[in-house]
Amino acid sequence: MIHYSKLKALIVEDFTEFARAVSTMLRDMGISHTDTVTSAEAAIQACREHKYDIILSDYNLGPQKDGQQLLEELIEFNLIKPKTTFVMVTAEKNAAMVMAAIEFLPDAYVTKPFNRHLLKSKLDKAIAKKQTLEPIKIAMRKCQWMKAIELCANVANQNPKYKNTCNQLKMKCLIANEQLDEAGQFIKQLQKKRCAPWVLRSQGIILYKQQELDQSIECFNRLIHDYPMYLEGYDWLAKIQHQLNRPIEAQKTLQKAVLRSPKLIKRQKLLGGLAEQNNDINSMTEAYRQAVKYGEHSVFRSAEEYVKLTKSIGLQLKGDAGRQRKTNRRG
Amino acid sequence: MKDDNQSIFNLVLASTVHDMKNSLGMLGESLNSIFEQFENKILEPKVRDHYGAVQYESARVNNLLMQLLALYKLENEQLPFNPNYYNLGDFLEEQSCKFIPLMKAKGINYQIKVAEDLEAVFDDNLMATVLENIIGNAIRYTKSQIHISCSFDRLLTIQIADDGPGYPKQMIELAGDYIQGIDQSTGSTGLGLVFAKKIAELHSHKDVKGNITLSNGGELGGGIFEIKIP
After folding, report:
1. The domain boundary residue, chosen from A129, A144, A165
2. Residue A248 lies in a domain
3. Strand ranges (DSSP E) for chain A?
4. What is the pLDDT of residues A110-143, one digit of tens each?
5. Does residue A305 form part of some domain?
6. Is residue A208 pLDDT above 60, yes or no?
7. Which of A40, A304, A331, B21 has the most crowded CB, counting CB atoms within 10 A?
8. Which domain holds residue A330?
9. How far apart are CA B48 and CA A115, in angstroms?
10. Domain total of chain A
């Protein structure tokens, strides 16, 4: 049972009519304190002044920061409590989902239109899950891996529903604690005909850490084949290909990922660097141009992409000038 | 040039659908607020029926819009297919939550039967659009009961059963060729079944295909819809 009356909520929504409807839904659930803002910038300010328990943010917030960038900034600058439940409101769930890097996932997604019953059901589940898993997360934040693993077993025993999440967290702890043999054993237990994406991902990482690079590549290839929208798989694959001195393959891999989601700046910068190494100046320019474009409202922007973009445009111009001179000479 | 036109159409279609969905959402929510003021009073059956009709029709338009957009993207190979592991209990509860006000108004009881820790791989967005249509239909045709259940035995089977008159014989006999059943004169286009079958097939894995079946009977004696995916 969740006591909503004690919770503070923030609604981030640029469509005021809709915000009013959501606010009424929250009030009907018993939440007495609800603030509404219409932009991510205002939301960041509100989070500096108040500590919210629930944040409901629309993904599309007009020309400035979007909901995902808001969440990234709130986490990066420690503006929300680890206990805060963040729900992303979207028109199309898939589109928003692939934009999120794995360390910045919201606690739940809810697709418009929705009614109070659906919102309550989503919040009930997200808050209950967060509360139940909280002790494990605290131990993990303190790097107390053995204690966290023990807690995973306890929580899973008492809540069969969270068994998979607990397995996932236990795997994270084993890898973080460099217990690679145990992690490998655990993977074997979890393997099924259809592995969950996180199982394939963990297996790939374990193999990578054990220096079994060919097997690791095979594993990440399977991951992106079975789950083409799980973009972290492409990042790992490109990283290994790059290490094996196959920069052209690595570039192709990352190009597949940015085709599905162009918004992650880190990925665009990696791609730009690879293209530079491969002397593919057009791709280099494109990647840094995207990094600049999507970085405009992001906390992860840096001078680097501007410098590199200028450099690549310079190279393009030089290339054109070179060709021009050749033509002239022939003429 | 053709590609340019297509991408403009794509954008217009997507944003129009988005706007229409927003409006429908507002419409539905306003209606629910009005209705909830009367919750403790006994409504005249006629008023209740009208309310139910508006609810049902707006949910139906919303769902048709989603299907239209998805089918268009599917034809142009632009439909993002994003399978993941989901808990079936949570997923099915969410699908029925969308219909609680409508079912209350029409006095329909619903039950969900599924193991608490059952998880499976599917695209929850697409599957939700399929089920929304099927549950909406069940609400339209049932007398008083809807059972939603789910089992896993090599294939994941989601079943929606009601105690209404069941599917017409000719529909069952189409056995998958639902595009044949589209009949503009009846007002029920059968688009939902065409869509459901496409989405089931999209969930094929290795050599195992996804499929849907229609039948009548069972515990409730009405129509039974099943979607099976590997």
Report:
1. A129
2. no
3. 8-12, 33-37, 54-58, 85-90, 108-111
4. 988 888 899 999 999 999 999 999 999 999 999 9
5. yes
6. yes
7. A40
8. 256-331
9. 19
10. 2
